[in-house]
Amino acid sequence: MTGRGSERGPGEAAIDRLARLLERLGIIDAERFRPTMELAWPRIVTGFAIMSKQTADLAMVGVAVGVSGTAGLAFALAYWEIVAMLGLGLAGGTISLVSQNYGGDETERASLVVIQSILLVVALAVPIMAVFLLFSETLIGLFGAEGETLEYGSTYLVYVAPAALFEMLNLIASRTYTGVGDTFTEMVARAGGAVLNILLSGLFIFGFDMGVAGAAIGTTLSTGFVTVVLAWGMTGRSYGRLGMEPSPVPITRTSAWIDLALARQLIEISAPEVGRRLAQGLVVFPLLWIAATFGPAVVTAVEVGRRVRSQINSVNWGLGLASSSLVGQHLGANDEDEAAAYGAAIIRIAVAAYLVMAVVVIALAEPIATLFGGNGNLEQTTIFIAVSAISAIGLGIDGTASGALLGAGDTRKPFAASLIGRYGFALPVAALGLVTPLGVAGLYLAFLLETFVPGGITYWLFRRGDWRAVSRRYRPSSEAS
């Protein structure tokens, strides 16, 4: 159930040494480390590649256009993040039901889950595309943007609008592959698309002197390419000698299209996860608005910090989803103790990994800041990068603990944790910077609170263990099926 990965992963000797080291340190047993990393490492590569798209675009726009371009792009990317968070939320429900049904040998029912997810994605994405196309200037203007910053931000939204549907479909396909234990196929497709995005954006930005519009066109074309590649395997077609596999829960012409009971389960699980993801994405809007009061250079510094944190958080793409998949599969097989053991071990791996990465990024914060041209304030950008690196540790805890709960279908409590951390703590502290001498430092504290508070709560929820009982409602053997 955990996939195919070791022959495509690092050398066996290196894996064995690392497994033994982590076991001696009390982080994870060697026999659990291997299936975890078989699932996680391709997703980590995938996440890093995907997150690098916006990071590279921000850096290239900074060099080609300047601070007004990067500030406009920061505002536009806030709306793009809403697209990603909606897709991730719905895909979270998808992986929960796919992994449990696949783990319980109910492959036809798992295929039906995927179809319901696709229908819901289309219903969500089409209106979003229309809003981006018709109201781009109004949307960017909500941040108080004007002049070139307004023009650049609205231009990006118009050209990136078609990619909203592509990206949400890609997320459903990716989570489907993860739910059945195959993270290699999606890695190849998504990482290939990320490389294509950087190449196309560079060509359009510098080769054709298209600036921000070039970055958006590169994103749209490359995201569409990934959709075509994943759709090939999701419909059961072979990839030939590429090493990629068709989905074991394929969509076929003979598949049923609507199952109301299953759609209700999907919505029931996904709705809180959508809410949790939106809570993560929507808090960016007031934070950027607050940053805008300090000028475009601070807006860009905030966005650079967020992009660096997203790169670090690529590890969660692998570990969080490995947690969801392995916990869900063992619950589907009615082995709750093993599910709990996997969840706890993966959280410990995340803490260790994020601590190491935070130290490295803090040490390199100033050189990293220079890659974005300094953005008018090298010192400020350097500080935000360092703060973001520390705050990423909270993301590591939150992502893996929430991943375990998600694998069980327990999505309501992590949603509440996200609301409390981001809107009960982070946002009020950031706002204090507008009315007290705290100033920009309020944004530093907000970066920390928006990750460590939800991380602490979700870890406590995992330790408490109520998710075991929740999972029994969604297993193939339950009456709800």
Key features?
0% strand; globular; disordered N terminus; 19 helices; single chain
Lay out the secondary structure.
Elements: H1 12-24, H2 30-64, H3 67-103, H4 107-134, H5 136-141, H6 147-160, H7 163-179, H8 184-207, H9 211-234, H10 260-282, H11 284-292, H12 296-312, H13 314-332, H14 336-363, H15 365-370, H16 378-407, H17 412-435, H18 441-464, H19 467-471
Helix pairs in contact: 1-2, 2-3, 2-8, 2-9, 2-12, 2-13, 3-4, 3-6, 3-7, 3-10, 3-12, 3-13, 4-7, 6-9, 7-8, 7-9, 8-9, 10-17, 11-12, 12-16, 13-14, 13-16, 14-16, 16-18, 17-18
The SSE order reads HHHHHHHHHHHHHHHHHHH
* End-to-end distance: 21 Å
Q: Given the structure, what is the number of helices?
A: 19
Beta percentage is under 5%
Unreliably modeled segments: 1-10
For the largest beta-sheet, the strand count, sense and barrel status come to: none
- C-alpha-based Rg, rounded: 21 Å
What's the overall geometry? globular
The assigned structural class equals: mainly alpha
Write structural notes for this entry.
- With about 475 residues, the chain is mainly alpha-helical.
- It is built from 19 helices and no strands.
- The chain has helices spanning about 10-25, 30-65, 65-105, 105-135, 135-140, 145-160, 165-180, 185-205, 210-235, 260-280, 285-290, 295-310, 315-330, 335-365, 365-370, 380-405, 410-435, 440-465, 465-470.
- The longest helix is centred in the N-terminal third of the chain and has 37 residues, at about 65-105.
- It is globular.
- The chain starts with 11 loop residues before the first helix and ends in a 10-residue tail after the last helix.
- Residues about 1-10 have low confidence and may be disordered.
